[in-house]
Write a structure and sequence with these properties.
Layout lengths: L2 H14 L5 E5 L17 E6 L8 E2 L12 E7 L8 H11 E14 L16 H11 L4 E11 L2 E13 L18 E3 L2
Parallel strand pairs: 1-2, 1-4, 2-3, 4-5
Antiparallel strand pairs: 5-7, 6-7, 6-8
Amino acid sequence: MHPSAYVLGGTFLGLNGRAGQRILEIGSANVNGSLRDHQPEGSTWIGVDQAEGAGVDVVGSSHELPFEDGSFDLVVSTSCLEHDPLFWITFLEVARVLRPGALAYLNVPAKGPYHAHPVDCWRFYPDSGAALALWARRSGREMHLVETFAAGSRGHQEWIDLALVFVRGEGEAEGYRPLRGTVTEKAEAVV
């Protein structure tokens, strides 16, 4: 995880994470930082990744998450989907395990150098969020894009992050506090 992704994820969790939430992190292995560092006090955090490692509670595929439908209050994933050859399948699983009215936060690179871990397949642009929400709805999973914007790190402009926030179901997200406009000095909106 590069610095702006860490800051953006921490800011999102600081605004929208709450005690009592059941939180799932997809791609949870600690690689240069972990969103678990920002876990809200009193929440339950479950990290899933494809191999054992620091920050991984459940080893498994994000294409077939071993959890019941609607079992999470929040799903987060940072610096992961660019490495997922079938990220659209993972997104359907995110939609499946979220409870209605709950949020999903994804941070994916819009720009950045090739970095296989073990593969590097994709870059995402601002229209990606609307396309993913459409894909989910066409596949029978009601997801709506709440917020999207690109941001980068000062001094690290080789990386531009795309922050995407979705809600499961129709209507507004419960108590959502927007990320854009709250970004710190370390990560600033660029688009």
